[in-house]
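Hello, quick one for you while I still have it in my head. My current little project is about how a certain protein chain folds up. You're getting the sequence in one-letter code plus the fold written as tokens. Would you mind checking whether the tokens look sensible for this chain? Here's the protein in full, and shout if anything looks odd to you:
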Amino acid sequence: MKKEKENRYALIDQLPEQTQRDIRVGMLVQSKLGKKKYRNVWVGSGWISLDGDDRLTFREAKY
């Protein structure tokens, strides 16, 4: 039997305050650099990616 991967989708408002701030700052920096899409940008507690469909993905770092 194949083990199913757990999907953990969350709105940014459901993340801790500091993580929300890190994500917003990272998005602002990428915007100022003129990037419309980016992948695996470090934001303090994980990585953010923005795809062509304007879907933001945050992956928390595992320590």
